[in-house]
């Protein structure tokens, strides 16, 4: 019920309730008035008195009239005056004769008190009006107290809270109080407060991220840029005085530019993923064939560094998963590169294991490197996290695993790591199986 309907209903109920209660009081007033006055006021008839006279002697007197009063009554009857007034009361009088069998005659005089109906109704109407006003005021006060509690006070509180929002105080929750639209307004303002708070928090995080990215990438770019300048200065200053030295200096300068290019590409890719500006072209892919092709592309690099790359397929049959082929290849490449940096020559190996659960395909990248410490493990997917397994190795931008996490989660998958110092590390990815009819839940 909205406020307009509520106010209208309250007004109608107050009016109806006041009329009903006033009517009850009016009936009670009439009932008790007639009982107390032993009369029927609405018919104009009051109390009745009877006087019985025998031979000028009063035999019966219901109202204890004096002999003088009775003589005045008899006098009025003798002159055909049917009314008698005494002590501001007026009586209609009548006489009847009653003869007994023994011949005794009795005069029966009846006096009926005459009541002024106009006076009664004036007092009755006055009573009804006063009662109506009192009941109406009481009912209105009760209703207004409810309105004060459920409408006025909540609106006042909302005004105070919106003033706090205006000056930037966003921590106090706005309670849901009041009727109808007032309650809905409180809910809307609370949602606005939360959205505003989240927006400010997000903006602060964006600013912090921007500053952190600028600081980190500046630090990471400084070393290769300094090296490139040193090699070029060596050529220009004649330090490289032979063709072989010049070639060596220039080759190293080119390698450093490639490193810078990789860092910039990683930074741009991560920024797009972080701001949800990267679209995913999802296709249904045979995971076994896909991983075979990825391993084939990377195997030459592992062989060149005398490191082993092993593929173990523990799937019972071929399964399809939904992925963006190009972007997921970046995930595989980043994880392999990260593992390759952290395993030793000759003895180092990376095992890529495919297995399954009821609903998912699991891809595990397990190396036999020195492992990741318990302190570093929760943070290895953070951008630019300073751990031995990430930033502080040659050619790393510090964004590889952060990019991998963004892409996997963008494909509705999960990625996590398990490790123990001295026993290598495992990066594990879970992707949902799909069939022709769709995703297996």
How is the topology of this model organized?
Blueprint: H1 3-37, E1 45-54, E2 57-61, H2 67-78, E3 83-86, E4 89-99, E5 105-114, H3 117-166, H4 180-236, H5 243-274, E6 283-286, H6 287-304, E7 308-313, E8 320-323, H7 325-341, E9 349-356, E10 360-367, H8 400-410, E11 414-419, E12 425-435, E13 438-439
Parallel strand pairs: 7-9
Antiparallel strand pairs: 1-2, 1-5, 3-4, 4-5, 6-8, 8-12, 9-10, 10-12, 11-12, 12-13
Helix pairs in contact: 1-3, 3-4, 4-5, 5-8, 6-7, 7-8
Question: Could you write a compact summary of the structure shown?
Answer:
53% of the residues lie in helices and 20% in strands. The protein is α+β, with helices and mostly antiparallel strands.
Kindly describe this structure.
This protein is of the alpha+beta class and 441 residues long. Helix content is 53%, strand content 20%. It has 8 helices and 13 strands. Strands 6, 7, 8, 9, 10, 11, 12 and 13 form an 8-stranded mixed sheet that branches. A hairpin with a 5-residue loop joins strand 11 and strand 12 (425-435). The protein starts with a helix and ends with a strand. The model is unreliable at 388-393 and 437-441 (pLDDT under 50).
């Amino acid at each position: 019920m909205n406020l307009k309907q509520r106010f209208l209903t309250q007004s109608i109920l107050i009016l109806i309730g006041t009329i009903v209660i006033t009517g009850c009081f009016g009936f009670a007033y009439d009932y008790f008035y007639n009982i107390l006055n032993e009369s029927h006021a609405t018919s104009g008839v009051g109390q009745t008195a009877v006087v019985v006279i025998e031979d000028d002697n009063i035999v019966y007197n219901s109202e204890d009239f004096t002999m003088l009063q009775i003589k005045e009554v008899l006098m009025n009857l003798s002159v055909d005056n049917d009314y008698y007034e005494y002590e501001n009361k007026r009586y209609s009088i009548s006489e009847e004769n009653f003869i007994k069998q023994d011949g005794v005659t009795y005069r029966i005089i009846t006096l009926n008190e005459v009541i002024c109906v106009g006076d009664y109704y004036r007092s009755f109407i006055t009573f009804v009006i006063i009662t109506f006003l009192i009941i109406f005021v009481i009912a209105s006060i009760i209703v207004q107290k409810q309105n004060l509690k459920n409408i006025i006070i909540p609106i006042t509180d909302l005004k105070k809270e919106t003033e706090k929002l205006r000056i930037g105080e966003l921590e106090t929750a706005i309670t849901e109080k009041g009727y109808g639209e007032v309650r809905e307004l409180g809910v809307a303002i609370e949602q606005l407060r939360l959205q505003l708070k989240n927006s400010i928090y997000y903006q602060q995080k964006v600013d912090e991220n921007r500053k952190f990215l600028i600081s980190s990438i500046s630090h990471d770019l400084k070393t290769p840029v300094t090296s490139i300048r040193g090699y070029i200065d060596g050529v220009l200053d004649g330090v490289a005085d032979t063709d072989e030295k010049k070639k060596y200096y220039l080759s190293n300068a080119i390698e450093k530019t490639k490193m810078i290019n990789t860092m910039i590409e990683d930074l741009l890719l991560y920024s797009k993923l972080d701001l949800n500006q990267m679209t995913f072209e999802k296709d249904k892919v045979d995971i076994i064939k896909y991983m075979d092709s990825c391993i084939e592309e990377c195997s030459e690099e592992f062989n060149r560094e005398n490191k082993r790359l092993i593929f173990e397929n523990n799937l019972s049959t071929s399964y399809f998963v939904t992925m963006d082929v190009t972007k997921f290849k970046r995930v595989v490449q980043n994880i392999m590169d990260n593992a390759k940096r952290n395993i030793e020559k000759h003895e180092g190996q990376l095992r890529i294991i495919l297995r399954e659960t009821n609903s998912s395909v699991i891809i595990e990248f397990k190396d036999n490197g020195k492992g990741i410490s318990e302190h570093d493990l929760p943070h290895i997917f953070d951008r630019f996290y300073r751990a031995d397994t990430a930033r502080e190795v040659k050619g790393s931008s510090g964004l590889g695993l952060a990019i991998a996490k963004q892409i996997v989660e963008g494909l509705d998958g999960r990625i996590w790591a398990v490790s123990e110092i001295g026993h290598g590390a495992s990066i594990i990815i879970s992707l949902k199986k799909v069939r022709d009819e769709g995703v297996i839940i």
